[in-house]
């Protein structure tokens, strides 16, 4: 089993014929993902990467039965693309786009509240279930099917954790890159809860960073409800105070926002915290022994 995406997922690509959409859709198809088509307004009826192109998500859903969408749409139009997917009945919406205005994301969050969908991102690397589906920009070759779930705010640290777990001989159930923006669809707690409830996930890697309250919220949920070991890492410990980091959400605003404070809270909640991402694999091996 896995969470969010698997070999039965029927995936469409919004922004299908653009350069980013084309490149990553090609990689997803190569990785064995069931990409059933794509959406580019005005190009409906054409073929691209040997898949049909539709003018709207509703058309794509009607013709293909798509239930997952990945969004490679420029920031100015990405919020509309998310809402269009939600309106069309897509169950899992993965927004890769970076730089969507916060005001637009406030509108999106409100709009999708009463829709039967889950948004991952924006500004994220996507979701990957090895041997099932790659819905994102993660490099498939470092993954191996296994029983460790990964949740991360950082794209590159997602890949580092995956590589460590693969090299430690364990493999992954599902990796979820939640994104580093101030307003995202699926929180760290949400993603960890999905993996805690997955019978084929034995342990979880949780990678956070400075800024925001998400890690503390997830850690406290784990303390109350956790049934599996969690290995944690917080990025940004050496960041200069007050400096805006690469992610829009990595702005320290209070005493619980710092790397030190987050690590202390995580340790108090029973999470196995490592001080270097190089120790993620060995620590997970140790706690599962």
From TrEMBL:
Molecular function, one GO term: nucleotide binding
Any Pfam family matching the protein: CoA_binding
Residues the entry annotates as binding substrate: 159
Membrane-crossing residue ranges in chain numbering: none
Domain of life: Bacteria
Keyword Ligase belongs to the record: yes
Sorted UniProt keywords: Ligase, Nucleotide-binding, Tricarboxylic acid cycle
Catalytic center residues: 247
An example Gene Ontology biological process: tricarboxylic acid cycle
Catalytic activity of the protein: succinate + ATP + CoA = succinyl-CoA + ADP + phosphate; GTP + succinate + CoA = succinyl-CoA + GDP + phosphate
InterPro entries: Cit_synth/succinyl-CoA_lig_AS (IPR017440), Citrt_syn/SCS-alpha_CS (IPR033847), CoA-bd (IPR003781), CoA_lig_alpha (IPR005810), NAD(P)-bd_dom_sf (IPR036291), SUCC_ACL_C (IPR005811), Succinyl-CoA_synth-like (IPR016102)
Binding positions for CoA per the UniProt entry: 17-20, 43, 96-98
EC numbers on record: 6.2.1.5
Gene3D superfamilies: NAD(P)-binding Rossmann-like Domain, Succinyl-CoA synthetase domains
Domain CoA-binding: 4-100
GO annotations of cellular component type: succinate-CoA ligase complex (ADP-forming)
Biological pathway: Carbohydrate metabolism; tricarboxylic acid cycle; succinate from succinyl-CoA (ligase route): step 1/1
Family that this chain belongs to: Belongs to the succinate/malate CoA ligase alpha subunit family.
PANTHER family in the record: SUCCINATE--COA LIGASE [ADP_GDP-FORMING] SUBUNIT ALPHA, MITOCHONDRIAL (PTHR11117:SF2), SUCCINYL-COA LIGASE SUBUNIT ALPHA (PTHR11117)
Role summary: Succinyl-CoA synthetase functions in the citric acid cycle (TCA), coupling the hydrolysis of succinyl-CoA to the synthesis of either ATP or GTP and thus represents the only step of substrate-level phosphorylation in the TCA. The alpha subunit of the enzyme binds the substrates coenzyme A and phosphate, while succinate binding and nucleotide specificity is provided by the beta subunit.
Subunit structure: Heterotetramer of two alpha and two beta subunits.
Protein name: Succinate--CoA ligase [ADP-forming] subunit alpha
The species this protein was found in: Croceimicrobium hydrocarbonivorans
Lineage: Bacteria, Pseudomonadati, Bacteroidota, Flavobacteriia, Flavobacteriales
């Amino acid at each position: 089993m896995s969470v969010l995406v698997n070999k039965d997922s029927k995936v469409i690509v919004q922004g299908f014929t653009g350069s980013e959409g084309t490149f990553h859709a090609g990689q997803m198809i190569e990785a064995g993902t069931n990409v059933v088509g794509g959406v580019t307004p005005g190009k409906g009826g054409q073929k691209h990467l040997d898949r049909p192109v539709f003018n709207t998500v509703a058309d794509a859903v009607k013709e293909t039965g798509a239930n997952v969408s990945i969004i490679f749409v420029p920031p100015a139009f990405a919020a509309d693309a998310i809402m269009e997917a939600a309106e069309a009945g897509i169950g899992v919406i993965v927004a890769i786009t970076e730089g969507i205005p916060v005001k637009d994301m406030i509108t999106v969050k409100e709009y999708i509240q009463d829709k039967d969908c889950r948004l991952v991102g924006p500004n994220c690397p996507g979701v990957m279930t090895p041997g099932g589906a790659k819905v994102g920009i993660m490099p498939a070759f470092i993954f191996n099917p296994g029983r460790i779930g990964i949740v991360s705010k950082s794209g590159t640290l997602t890949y580092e954790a995956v590589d460590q777990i693969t090299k430690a001989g364990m493999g992954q159930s599902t990796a979820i890159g939640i994104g580093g923006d101030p307003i995202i669809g699926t929180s760290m707690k949400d993603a960890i809860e999905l993996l805690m409830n997955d019978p084929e996930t034995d342990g979880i890697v949780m990678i956070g960073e400075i800024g925001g309250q998400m890690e503390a919220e997830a850690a406290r949920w784990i303390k109350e409800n956790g049934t599996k070991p969690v290995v944690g890492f917080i990025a940004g410990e050496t960041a200069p105070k007050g400096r805006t980091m690469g992610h829009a959400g990595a702005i320290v605003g209070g005493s619980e926002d710092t790397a030190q404070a987050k690590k202390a809270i995580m340790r108090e909640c029973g999470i196995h915290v490592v001080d270097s991402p190089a120790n993620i694999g060995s620590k997970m091996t140790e706690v599962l022994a």
